[in-house]
Amino acid sequence: MFDFTLNNKGNMQYLKGAVALLLGFGLMGNAFASSAEDGKPNPGDFIIHHIADAHDIHLWGDGPSALHIPLPVISYAPGFGWDVFSSSALLHHGEDHVDMSDHGMDGTHADHDHASGDAHGHGGGGYHSHATGLTYTLDGNGMLHAADDTGHAVENVYDLSISKSVLGMFLVIFMMLLIFPRIGSSYKKRKGQAPKGLQNALEPLILFIRDEVAVPSIGEKKADRYLPFLLTTFFFIFLCNLLGLVPFIGAFNVTGTVGVTLTLATFVFIITTVSGNRHYWGHILWPPGVPLPIKLILVPVEVVGILLKPAVLMIRLTANIGAGHIIILALTFLIFIISDYGANTAAGIGTGIFSVAFMIFMYFIELLVAFLQAYVFTLLAALYFGDATQEAHH
Amino acid sequence: MEAFLNTVYGTVFWSTISFLVVLILMRRMAWGPILQGLKEREEEIDGALNKAKEARAEIENLQSDNERLLQEARAERDGMLRDARDMADKLVGDAKQLAKDEGERMIGQAKQAIDGERAAAVADLKAEVAKLSLEIAEKLVRQELKDEGNQQALIGRMISDSKLN
């Protein structure tokens, strides 16, 4: 299914790898399976694969020359126990794939399960753990499945792998722990002196969060309590967003990963709920000064709103960051679509110039969005905290 | 839905742990000192500005004080000058008066003395003239009287003259 009729060898190699990847990992692989079968890569699959979380970091190249960094897979199956192994054992993109890691392939290399016959065409070597006796495989959506010795699938497998997004998160946290404690100590060391260097560079942002986000939303007195959370959230999201814009390191999409934004939104939800005072709950459960029939409508809406507010935070951040990546990838893919996958080189070059210009423009927009979404998330979180702690004023 | 949840187990698990860790570490190692430092610096700047304002007000006070003192000193100086001038004028006037009086007194004395002297001088002169006259008269008489006739005439004249004197 990979023999395209392409006249450009480089293109063909690239597409071959891309198709293999997207068919193997694309979240929407199933939905677009039919279009992929005619030999042309599906843009949707390609893009979704690239913005989805993965068990490895695909740096560049395809086929034999592809450079992947395998990541540790950590899995827990109740009744079986824990397993930790390199994802290189799971990631075999076709027979010609050469992995950069020398991790054992435990003999599964020979029998790639093309037999599964599904549209993904992705083998996934599988990894057999001697400790738990489970055999792990990845499906087309990049999800981890386990089967016991008898070949029966294990229902509850918790995939706690250090995935691409988790690694990106660790990188960001590492950077934060490298930068901010140093700034903190320079405030102690250079007491009473003008800020300098890193301290001077980041102080405007810190002051911005304090004076433009926290204090106006929560109020001078209570803002101090929420500032560490707001500052951490802001810089965490901002740096994750920026990490996603760094080229050649495998297109991290940390804040475009639902799990990460879900966690952040959950923190906001917990803090809002815990710090909610009488006034806050009163307004939700029995809004004062509202006629009874309207109360019957309003109260359920308000109660749903408690959960809806953080959910919206999560969706907004994920969608915005995901969308930016999708647009850039779509512009890339446009070149292949218009050039009919390499059949029309001139059209490809023409579209390429246009696409690259737009991509550069999009990158600038994305830089703005990286800041804006971090700001919006922090501001809304601060507003929710402010709502929850507001004292009655009427 | 199960697939969706399955993919997020790992990321939720790790992001919860790492976010909590980073929140706690950052709170202790970064945000605490940074926010504290910022607050202290702001208070310091506010304090410095207030102090500068106070100092300026104080300087203004001092300046107005100085102005007032200067005004007073000037007034005092003027008063003192005026007093001194008055005193001097008075002294000079007194002295003049005194000198005038003394002069007048001295002139009066001198006049008196002169009058006295003149009277004495006149008296002396009179006596001298009388003496001289007598001598002359004696000599004349002697001369005249060398001749008896003359003596007689003269005596007669003399007698008549004496009556005139």
Kindly describe this structure:
The complex is a heterodimer of chains A (394) and B (165). Chain A is globular. In chain A, helix 3 (43-51) crosses helix 9. In chain A, the strands form three sheets. Chain A has a four-stranded antiparallel beta sheet, with no helix packed on it. Chain A is of the alpha+beta class and 394 residues long. In chain A, 56% of the residues lie in helices and 9% in strands. Chain A has ten helices and nine strands. Chain B is mostly helical. Chain B has one domain (2-164). Chain B has two helices and no strands. Chain B has helices at residues 2-144, 148-164. Chain B is rod-shaped and about 195 Å long. The N and C termini of chain B lie far apart (181 Å). The chains are: A alpha+beta (394), B mainly alpha (165). Chain A binds chain B through residues 53, 74, 141-144, 157-163, 165-166, 169-170, 173, 176-177, 180-181, 183-185, 187-188, 191-192, 203, 206-207, 210, 224, 227-229, 231-232, 236, 257-260, 262-264, 266-267, and chain B through 3-4, 6-16, 18-19, 21-23, 25-27, 29-38, 40-41, 44.
